Amino acid sequence: AAKLSDDDIREALLHIDAANKKVKRLRLTNCTSITGSGLAPLLGCTSIEQIDLSLVGAHQPTQEDYLMHHLSCDLVLPVLDSIISQERCSLKHVQFPHVWRDKKPYFDFQLIQFLERYDVMLENSLTACCGTRLDDGLICFGDEDYGVQDHTCSECTKNYCYKCTDEDGNKLVHFCRTCERNYCTTCVAMVPCGDCNAVMCVDCIPHTDCANPSCTNIVCNDCLWKEC
To answer: Which of 48, 61, 104, 107 has the greatest number of C-beta atoms within 10 Å?
Structure first.
């Protein structure tokens, strides 16, 4: 995937007629050589439901995309805009690059303006697990989680409100602080950090630098320096 160019992506999408066929998901995992111009065949696509622009693989820290990200907002956002503007838009979830989200709106008004339009589209089209309308904002605009899509499981793309719980009173969807994705409890098992209120995917549990082979401390990346 690292060797794929924008021309390669464009040719692949044209070959399968991505704009008109039932293309459901697009993940650009390890496509580190592209700028986004190759996504042009997706203009106006009404079938796509999920787009992952983070470039990192499943259960990898999204901060790693700083080292390999060349995707351009100027090239990608017009494609996304053309998708969400369609009356029969099917898009349910977009994973934005950490390097984009870390800039925050103070540096990229183009992104914040798109996120606001995307948030309105989601509020008008999505319902939660219990059938209620999710109209309290699905895109986070706070400093810590800026640009993260809330309520939606990034694996199955089902939507969950925070009022509904399982039989033990636990929330049905959790945000992993390591891979910066929301997962429902059906798709991914989560574990709590032993030092704060954060939770992590089982597959995202980081290794500590502790020399003690019997150490079993489980902490999130933010608390790792406090332990051992």
So the answer is: 48
Nearest by Cα to 193 from 225, 151, 160: 225
Query: Is residue 111 within 8 Å of 77, Cβ to Cβ?
Result: yes
Cβ count near 168 (within 10 Å): 5
Q: Which two tokens stand for residue 204?
A: 């995202």
Q: How far apart are CA 184 and CA 158, in angstroms?
A: 8
Determine the residue type at 158: K
> Of 127, 125, 129, 101, which is closest to residue 115 (Cα–Cα)?
101
| pLDDT digit string, tens, across residues 93-106 | 999 988 888 766 55
The span from the CA of 45 to the CA of 20, in Å, is: 7
- Looking at residue 227, its pLDDT comes to 57
Strand partners, 52: 27, 95
Q: Is the pLDDT at 212 greater than 90, yes or no?
A: no
User: Coil, helix or strand for 92?
Assistant: coil
How many other C-beta atoms can be found within 10 angstroms of the C-beta atom of residue 128? 20
Is the Cβ–Cβ distance between 208 and 216 less than 8 Å? no
